[in-house]
Recover the amino acids of this structure.
């Protein structure tokens, strides 16, 4: 039995998600025997930036935060921008944060927690293009490969995935 055998982690995707920022964490967590589920605004197939589809078997409204240990929000300019427009998605992310469950975001994914209203006073990082959005949401922005602030784990881009996953696995262990 590995450290993550009893852990359940949701992934939030939409069309335009960044392939590596979804598949690398999903596969890596499954290697540690965590259970992963994929959700979106509604169930169905979603296309990545580079043509790797993924199926969302859950809508955000069907996810039960008390049955999950964390959520990973991959970047990609299209996916987070679509996700943040859904009250059901932002309500789910807000409830995960309120229950002190892991909220992990990478690249442009910071837009979703911004819209959920959970970043004020937090320390975080993201792709430099959304730095101003984070700062305007009350974030203490740090330009580092991974930033952990309580239950919030953030990284800048796919090049940071090894550090991002180490932080996620450490948090869930």
């Amino acid at each position: 039995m590995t450290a993550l055998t009893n852990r359940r982690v949701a992934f939030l995707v939409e069309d335009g998600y960044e392939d590596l920022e979804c598949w690398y964490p999903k596969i890596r967590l499954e290697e540690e025997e965590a259970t992963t589920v994929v959700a979106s605004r509604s169930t169905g197939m979603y296309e990545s930036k580079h043509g790797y589809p993924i199926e969302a078997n859950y809508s955000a409204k069907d996810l039960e935060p008390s049955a999950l240990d964390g959520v990973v929000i991959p970047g990609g300019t299209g996916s987070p921008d679509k996700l943040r427009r859904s009250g059901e998605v932002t309500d789910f992310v807000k409830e995960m944060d309120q229950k002190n469950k892991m909220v992990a975001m990478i690249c442009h994914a910071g837009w979703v927690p911004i819209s959920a209203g959970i970043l004020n006073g937090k320390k975080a990082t993201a792709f430099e293009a959304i730095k101003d959005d984070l700062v305007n949401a009350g974030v203490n922005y740090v330009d580092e490969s991974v930033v952990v602030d309580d239950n919030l784990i953030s990284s800048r881009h796919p090049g940071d995935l090894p550090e991002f996953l180490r932080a996620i696995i450490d948090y869930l262990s």
